[in-house]
Amino acid sequence: MKINPRLERIAxxxxxxxxxxxxxxxxxxxxxxxxxxxxxxxxxxxxxIKRTYGGAVSLHAELPENEANGNARPAADAFAVGxxxxxxxxxxxxxxxxxxxxxxxxxxxxxxxxSIELQEQRALVAVDNYRAGFxxxxxxxxxxxxxxxxxxxLLDLTFHxxxxxxxxxxxxxxxxxxxxxxxxxxxxxxxxxRATAGQMARDALHVYPQINLIFxxxxxxxxxxxxxxxDLGIDPRQMTVITFGLEGNTLKDELAQPESYCxxxxxxxxxxxxxTCIEAAIAAFSGQALVEHYTTPHVVLSAATLTxxxxxxxxxxxxxxxxxxxxxxxxxxxxxxxxxSRTKLPSRIGLIVxxxxxxxxxxxxxxxxxxxxxxGIGVRIIDAEQNARDExxxxxxxxxxxxxxxxxxxxxxxxxxxxxxAYLAEELKAKKDITIITNSVSVFDILNRAPGLxxxxxxxxxxxxxxxxxxxxxxxxxxxxxSDKLFLMPGGITLDFGLSHQTISEVTMKQAMIGSxxxxxxxxxxxxxxxxxxxxxxxxxxxxxxxxxxALPPSLRLELSKAGIQVxxx
Length: 570
What we know:
With 570 residues, this protein is of the alpha/beta class.
């Protein structure tokens, strides 16, 4: 069967690459991810590709050697587990960590953990975070003491992960040892983002102008702090920024400047970490013995010592391997002439990248690929953030499909706006003899020309950001209407606070919807639970049914059931 050129082009891309995520296809075709998912569903129905969590896999992709020998694996999923022989992974979040470990374990794929421990890992490749932070804190304390500074006022830009918490704890302990007169002014979770760290640092420096020392747990966070200092016009002689990580060219260039806020950084050597990860992955695949923790080296570098370990090469900084071999304790053999006589090599190694914007992962990706190519091994890069978003969106689609199954002919259905609303509208297009009332502009647009439906808009003022109709006019309209079923989409759900949302005008609209409905059915994926969005909509007692995904913990499902709510898993 012939398919239209756009679908054919998408199918060709998938065939060429083997596996492609929804996000990649969206960026490539400059279309929405919802449109991409619709195209993929059509191609899957035509038998042209195989739809998977987070994207699609080619039916004609070249199989790894072990599959050709009859040891079949599952098709690619959100983590492309079925497309690799070994996984090098760092922690994303508890749910996706469990998901990865479970899928890898079922497929017999060994995991090498990078930076942070993972359950069922074969080995961990990581710096000693506490020790490295301690050394960096000692350097900062000695530096400030030598300047004659009477007291250090510290802003700690940290993150919620165990490794970054260890960095902050080590830095504070090292600082205290070398400069007892110090004070922790503020410790903030900067979310490991440059923009977020910059905003938080600006706010902190406004409120606490005495801050004269900033510790950042990685390059992106440090660059955010430097942005804030520049924006506020702070004299570089009055501010010291210390970074855990000299991960790429940007901060090395910053450190080399004579009037820089950044006075020192911790070199973690992605050049060495990448080699260690590849060698550990090969050893795991071939059944060799592994060290439980490959502790990679670290060195505190300042402008005066940067060139001891790195040299300029055009616009890049290159590691001086002769110095590294002589002075660093490297956990593996890194000699240029390596044996190629291994009896068993993986054909592809997967690398999960949690923060694609970080220079650490950009360098790690490039170096792992280069090193693996020497063995003829491919490296599959997996964008964890995009895959996480894709998986949540797929689960929302499944919730919408399940919700549509609850609608019977003759029903009057009230559809709230929210992240699942557009998917639900698409599912409801196939229904006949139902009446749909909505305050969602996007839902109305999707259903506007659907045959067999009666469509009613609540009217009201449009909130541009959410495309929702709100206000007294819309609320008054609902007082004149009655619906059999309300599909409600709150921003947060907890056992104590109940249903909540972040915008007061939408909260009052949702409350009016509850008042006009005979049955309240909440649609929420697992990310909504445990979050109090700010303003209470209603207690959980107003809810008759909840449709969610199977990532919701069983203990919470039990508590909701005990509260009299029928929990339906999509």
